[in-house]
Amino acid sequence: MIDLLEGEKMKTLKYKNVVSSILFFVFITLLGCSHSLTTTGNTPPLQPVSEEKFNASLPKDVYVDSGNRLPVVSRNELTDDKKTTYDGLVSPNTRTLAGIRGPGGIRLHGSGDLGESKVDRRTQELARLVVSREMDQAFEWTLHEPVALRFGLEPYIIDVIRNGKSLQGVPEREAAIIQLGREIFQNHKVSPETFTRVLKQIGKRDLIDICDYMGNYTKTAILLHAVNAHLPYDRESLLPLE
Fold first, then answer.
1. CA–CA distance, 188 with 199 (Å, rounded to integer)
2. Residue at a domain's end among 62, 92, 109
3. pTM above 0.85, yes or no
4. Which residue range(s) make up the domain with 222?
5. Alpha carbon distance 242, 237 (integer Å)
6. CATH number at residue 182
7. pLDDT, average across residues 48-74
8. Which terminus of the chain is more solvent-facing, meaning fewer CB atoms within 10 Å of its CB: N or C?
């Protein structure tokens, strides 16, 4: 009887050992898979190991001091209110995540306040139509095409934007702005050639302002899309959509 009990105990012990071994194997396997996922697929590429190598890795049209295509703005060329903004951005206690190298510092090249922008209304409406076309926003387009015409934007330029036509024959200034918008929305980046082209045509102040205008118009387009805004019953859409 004792031998029988001892035999049963041995069987139970062996069974527990086998189960423990299997569980341990499964744990190690899962741990290895998890480690593989976190150390391969999700690991960002190694960055240059020194500031010198990092600076050398930047594109040729990017300034080292700013990390973008415009140099850090000189404080001496700023108005008093912008100097206050500048000082806040370079302060050790700044609340911004990127300081002078971020959007706040970049906007110092522009008007700062679009209410004080020198960009004429015709150009503003041009930018609005570009955004409306790229965002397929018929409500915004239909309401603003007549405004663009009223402020002197030529019908053939509007037609080029509306139908995504070639920019051949469009004046260089307008063509550069349209191409800027197309690249931003379609490619999510702007080529060095297009940036240089726009900068040459309208200067850095208006370039920054145009980007901010486009941002505001995009915000409007998102809002209208989100609530599925429809034109009034007596307004026919002027923007062809599939």
1. 18
2. 109
3. no
4. 116-226
5. 12
6. 1.20.1290.10
7. 93
8. C
